[in-house]
Amino acid sequence: MPIRIFGFQALWSPYFLLLLILVTAFYFLVTIKWRNKFEGSEPLTKRQAILFVTSILVLYAVKGSPVDLLGHIMFTYHMIQMAILYLVVAPLFLRGVPWWVWKKVINHRAVKPVFNFFTKPLIALVLFNGLFSIYHLPIVFDYIKMSMFLHSLYTIGLFMFALFMWWPLVNDMPDGKRLSGLKKVGYIFADGILLTPACGLIIFATDPVYATYSDAGSWLQAMALCVPTGTLQQLNLSGPELFSSMPIIEDQQLGGVIMKIIQEIVYGCMLAFVFFEWVQRDKEETEKMEASAMMRHQTDYTK
């Protein structure tokens, strides 16, 4: 059965799209028109603008397009959403917002102590991966998926902790706390290891573990998060099997595999970025040392 039966609002989330357009407009107002109100501000670079707009477009693709609706029908799409939202959108968003904007936000007296605590590398790693794993415990997952308030709250909260987790790796503040090259490599490996148990639980389960994808009543209640109740009542649906020929257990296992694959790709790209950044920094330091030594040699020779 085609998913277009759920209607335009369920498929394309127009209110969410409007919100993202307003956020993007506000971003350009702050970084261009109101830039002089920020101490130490710098002109918005083309790279920053592209990264931010890309993060917004990808965010809409996974949370506002039909992918979001499919995420309530098939577990595979849900895991694609989770992987892209927390492993792709979060770092793009962090790098897209100029450092002087982050500095203004972080230095607020109500934000600074909280931010400094949650961005400590060990705490950031444990909390994000811990909350991600807890969310995918069947009893927690099904309970949250059947409540609009809890689902929205947990999604936003987990995204905040994803930002905390990525901060030590990708922040570019001149006076910000950043990990060294070797520590970044260890941080990425630790992140990958901590996320593995949740994926393993899903991949190697021999039975469907989530009622919101296997039980008709629970599934319909979860579908109410993205489909108007009146539409659901009119359609009189029996379950997710109407929209997918894939067995539930295979869909569940595929979701876990895809989550792990996306994670490995993202972390592999990040490792490559860290490595080349590390090599470039060492090269620049070596050149500075050689230049300094040459100047000393010339000075001694002149004397």
From TrEMBL:
Which terms are listed as keywords in the entry?
Cell membrane, Membrane, Transmembrane, Transmembrane helix
The signal sequence is: none
Pfam families (UniProt xref): Caa3_CtaG
Record bears the keyword Transcription regulation: no
- State the encoding gene: ctaG
Protein name as it appears in the record? Cytochrome c oxidase assembly factor CtaG
Q: Which InterPro entries match?
A: Caa3-assmbl_CtaG, Caa3_assmbl_CtaG-rel
Cell compartment(s), UniProt: Cell membrane
Classify the protein's membrane topology as the record does.
Answer: Multi-pass membrane protein
- Chief location category: membrane
Residue spans crossing the bilayer: 12-30, 50-71, 83-102, 122-141, 148-167, 187-206
What organism does the record attribute this protein to?
Bacillus lumedeiriae
Answer whether the UniProt record assigns the keyword Translocase to this protein.
no
